[in-house]
Give the backbone structure.
Amino acid sequence: MILQDAYAIFQKMLAPLPLDTFLDSVLGQRFIKIPGNAQSPRAQLFGADPLQLALDSFETLAPRIGCHSEAPLGPNPVIEPLPSAEAFKAKIEAFYALGYTVRLRDIRALSPALDEFLRAMEAIFHQPATVEAFISRGDAHAPVHHDDYDIIVVQLTGRKRWFISTERSELPNVWKTVPEGAVLLGPHEVVEVEAGDMLYLPRGTKHRVDAMADSFHLSIGFIPLTMREAIIATLDHLSEFDRSFRESVDPRLALSIRANNFGALPEKIREGLAKLQSVSRSDDFVAQSLQRRSSRAIADLEKLPSSKRNVTLSPASLLRQSPLAISHLMANAQKIDLSHPGGHLYIHRGVEESVAFIVGNREFHVRDIPGEIGDDVRIALAEKFVSAGLFEVVSG
């Protein structure tokens, strides 16, 4: 998936809202409803019959089922492996009877279209994206809450009424803090959604939800790069070159914590921050830091599936980029570091032109790979990309 494809996929899902509008004036700033209909591409993200697809995936979904309710009528049913789709449907009905909305995890791989959409988001934001499904009966109610990540909600079937705070979100950090008591909704708008409608809520946006009819919706979670993470990227980069940032600072930390006395450590931290501030005056240093961060972020994504059989390539072999393949290129004087979901390929810098061609094209014959190299090197390069799951063999 080259970057142009990722943008096109995201735009298709956002339509009719322009992608530039979403990125420039919506993301992280305000909630928005994007109207659609049951024929919208996003309404098909989980197949033509979302509930049946979920039921048919009982082996994967049943042992990890979750639930929530504003006022449950009793403790939730036992969560356990189930023997059939029929048993899974009966279990869901048992949750419904007690007033619960059911949450389904591990659904991404069940739908190629959904998997592709999340991968497009990961290609654009260089951050992981996750997804859950929520299914509920028409009288279900969710309590006031907020999420610790931005969410894109896609209503697949049924109707829901959202009560969404109009106050500016504080964009909370992902870690837990001391609870502040009951979450109050405060000033809000009432937004109704039906099949094909999409909502975007910045993380921390308080909301509650009522089902108006039997409902199935997707909630896609992600966090765009924050200033905090960008600064951490510069610190990580500096620690590659300055040993002092990798040294232990307090071998008796527990005692220091108990006494609230850290000796010389505060001054050492100030010295370290001064070093970071000094090197960050260089735009080139900051750029290198963010390139390294993206390299790690892409490599940390779940590994791509690769061919389980030995493939013999020839100059005539036709290769096509795998639908979920994305990559990030970096290099030093000797080697290219090509990160991809699940790892890295380290390739000699002398074939930089060839590597740039490979990652920049959706489809090509091995013989088309440019550079002052022989066909044996072209085949060896192609084999690396096929083995990593980045390309599929179409023919030859």
Notes: The two ends are 22 Å apart (CA to CA).
